[in-house]
Amino acid sequence: MKRRKFIHDAGCAAIGGSTLISSIMNLSTLNASAGYHNTSDFKALVCILLAGGNDSFNMLIPKGTSEHQEYQSIRGGLAIPKNNVLTLNNGLNNNRELGLHPSLVNVRNIYNSGDAAFISNVGSLVEPVDLAHFQNGSKRLPLGLFSHVDEIAHWQTSIPQERGSIGWGGRMADLLSSVNTNQNISMSISLSGGNLLQTGELTRPFTLTSNGAVGINGYDAMSTFDQIRTSALDSLLGGQHTNLFERTYMEVVKNSNDANLYYDTAVANTPPLQTSFSANNVTSQELKVVAQTIAARNDLGMSRQIFFVTIGGWDHHDEVLNSQALKLSKLDTALSEFNDSLNELGLTNDVTTFTISDFGRTLTSNGNGSDHAWGGNALVMGGAVNGNNIYGQYPDLFLDNPLDVGRGRLIPTLAADQYLAELALWFGVPKSELDIIFPNIHNFYDVLSSSNPIGFMQ
Predict the structure, then answer these.
(1) According to the 3-state scheme, what is the secondary structure of the chain?
(2) How many domains does the chain have?
(3) pLDDT tens for residues 361-417?
(4) Residues 7-43, buried b or exposed e (16+ Cβ, 10 A)?
(5) Which of 222, 250, 271, 347 gives 20 to 30 Å between its CA and that of 434?
(6) Residue 133 falls inside a structural domain
(7) Is position 186 within any domain?
């Protein structure tokens, strides 16, 4: 059986019955036969999860007079006043003039410079759906639609018709891992601990904190007591263990400790960043660690890296105006500082940062907040972005419009697969392998097409 047919048939057989990529599919081994090899260029993806469901129709907002009136009518007390909406140099989409939340001053400047874009009305889909399909049940819908637990998982697995344990980033790292010369540290690096997006069959994220790598407390420290503990631990880790569980546990501890030491050495050998990051902004400090890790890419032996950062607290059923303004302001500051650090490193074109969120939120108010919905808007930033543009079709916002399934919960007109697949193509996944990473991609995009799924990446 040809390799391509084997992967395709095994993947298709798994859909709906179990985890998509089964344990027999060792992508780390198969990637060698696919022709992947070490590469001299560098690329990184930085995923920022706005956990809780960002009210993104208050992030990307109608600015024109009639459009804002429509927006004001359905949003009521949740609407941002027209005069407060930030103007974009090119904010036209679907015959609408759009602007940004007033907290996104720096993002507006990055957008106007051509290094950022917005993806409009994107969400988790199994296949294209319209209002009639939704009402008569003739098309498959994501499991647990409007549920935090399910929707946040769907964005990370890209298999919304099932509840899986393997993420699209993990599958991508399994496929491409051999491009990195150093196999001791994962291609996937998390500032948010273990996560679904970066979990593969063989790949697990290497976890950092805002203070960098976290090793064994006191290991190889200078005090006499720590030196005694270090010697004892080395003896344990280097010992022979006949018990399978003991041996596996010791291997995990040893590999983790070695990776931490290797990481610390590589970062210590890298000149410190001159860009200033806000000390009281957690996201700023986490993106500073991302920038420092990218700066150490050569010593780390990395040609490809996938970073994962979570910002919680976007479930604004109450006080959405004040709460979201604060969250967006901190995000705006962190993205600006991170962008400055990439300019310092000369890597603006090589790093693409993008946001995902559980779902959009209801256009109607519940009194002082908004509730769980479906389609929403996302931000993508980087020098390789075809920026100063809004992609997709910004939807009508009047109640009971053709995309409204109730209370202003909008059916997505772009699939998460299209958004994420375009990022994967830029990262180096061949079109012929896209359905390994995104098994539903054929429902939205012809992989034989000469164009990208959406067109926002160069």
Answers:
(1) CCHHHHHHHHHHHHCCCCCCCCCCCCHHHHHHHCCCCCCCCCEEEEEEEECCCCCHHHCEEECCHHHHHHHHHHHHHHCCCHHHCEEEEEEEECCEEEEECCCCHHHHHHHHCCCEEEEEEEECCCCCCCHHHHHHCCCCCCCCCCCHHHHHHHHHHCCCCCCCCCCHHHHHHHHHHHHCCCCCCCCEEECCCCCCCCCCCCCCCEEEECCEECCCCCCCCCCHHHHHHHHHHHHHHHCCCCCHHHHHHHHHHHHHHHHHHHHHHHHHCCCCCCCCCCCCCHHHHHHHHHHHHHHCHHHHCCCEEEEEEEECCCCCCCCHHHHHHHHHHHHHHHHHHHHHHHHHHCCHHHEEEEEEECCCECCCCCCCCCCECCCEEEEEECCCECCCEEECCCCCCCCCCCCECCCCCECCCEEHHHHHHHHHHHHCCCHHHHHHHCCCHHHCCCCCCCCCCCCCEC
(2) 1
(3) 999 999 999 999 999 999 999 999 999 999 999 999 999 999 999 999 999 999 999
(4) beebbeebeeeebbbeeebebbebbeebebeeeeeeb
(5) 347
(6) yes
(7) yes
Domain range for 330 is 36-214+302-443
* Residue 97 belongs to some domain of the structure: yes
For residue 258, being part of any structural domain is answered with no
Task: Give pLDDT tens digits for 56-112.
Answer: 999 999 999 999 999 999 999 999 999 999 999 999 999 999 999 999 999 999 999
